[in-house]
Amino acid sequence: MAEKTKEKKRSKLIIAWVIAALVVVAGIVVAVLLLTRGREINDDFFKDDGTKYVLTQDSGINGAIKTHTVLYYNSNDEITKWEVYGEYADADTAKAALEYIKSEDPENNEYELNDKYLIHRISEEHYGHGETASSYKEWFDTLRASEAENNSEEEPAAE
Predict the structure, then answer these.
(1) Cβ atoms within 10 Å of 101's Cβ, excluding its own
(2) For residues 128 and 79, is the Cβ–Cβ distance under 8 A?
(3) Would you say 124 and 70 are in contact if contact means Cβ atoms under 8 Å apart?
(4) What is the average pLDDT across 15-22?
């Protein structure tokens, strides 16, 4: 009888280890899937928040319909990352723009494609010279105000 009790305990222990291993494997799979899937980019992404400043302009290079300059910063007002998102009409147009860029400079690895967005990662050597994120925010605010002023001048007066 003691043998049967030991065998039951051993079986339960084996089952517990198998379940624990399955849970660990499932956790790893979920983590990998979350880390490798692309960022979901929508209009809400292109808004200033406590981690980034965003400048959106109604023009772009290589056929982009809009350009979103996104400047990430930390609590010390230091720039941590700078990306420029070219927004295209659709994913195929964005892909064609990336292919054009690659044809001009095949070694250029500063670009990433995410649906209809072509993301250009700006190298730290271009902004890592002691500039603060808030100084760029002031520049963004000035550009926004200038663009708004230009747009209001272009609108015809109501009669």
Answers:
(1) 18
(2) yes
(3) no
(4) 82
